[in-house]
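Lab notebook, bench 4. Still working through the backlog of constructs that have no structural model yet. Next entry is a single chain of 254 residues. Request: give me the structure tokens for it.
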Amino acid sequence: MTNQTVSRVAINGANGKMGQETQRAIYTADGLELVACLDSGDNLADSLAETTPDVVVDFTHPDTIRTTIRTILQAGCHAIVGTTGIHPHEVADFEADVRDSQRSVLICPNFSIGAVLVIQAAAKLATYLPHVEIIERHHEQKVDAPSGTALKAASVIAAAMPSINAGIPTSQELIPGSRGGVNDTGIPIHAMRLPGHLAQLDICFGGQGQRVTVSHDTLDRGAFMPGVILAIRWMMKNDPGVWYGLESIMEDLE
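Model written out:
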């Protein structure tokens, strides 16, 4: 294999659990070379200038992710973002940076191909069973709630069925928040943070005389790696742009 066929990859947030799992996945993937493992003690701009990766996979922190994306693009690298905290309506914020750099941004709330397919199935169900709530469970160290995956699921379901949960009366909450958090989708999201959990998504539908739940359980972080590798390879073959969600590139592969 010649160097021309190898994609150079850096991981930002390499010391975290997702970063470590991604290191192992890249080491064993054909056609990928891991050229930098960066973390909070590193100067991102200087490190990228020195190591010249083609793609940076980011697993850092929601508070700094917008600045991080712009630093990656300004360094002439594509950005694959696994850090949560960016929502679909914010994607347009990066379009000017993408045009200027001629590099791409892919924001993925969840790299699990199975989770993406579950959300797509839920969108289909919503057209027939338009009463739904979401329960997501994560480990106790996850800092944001609800998860990006749950927010993505709510957005996709609401787009498929705009009248979701119509006719459900507002509950009297004896404890504020007991009916879950609700954004402009109108879908209640219940977030749990407990030891012993990694990531679980339950999308619960109710209808006349029936109930349906579609679920996805992540048993270990290896579940995310096929999606990460897919994203890296896809990024190197396509024109500059901004994408949100792994499904946006999976559809392109069909």
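Notes after review: Strands lie at 7-12, 32-38, 55-58, 78-81, 105-107, 132-138, 189-193, 199-207, 210-218, 242-244. The radius of gyration is 19 Å. Flag for follow-up if needed.
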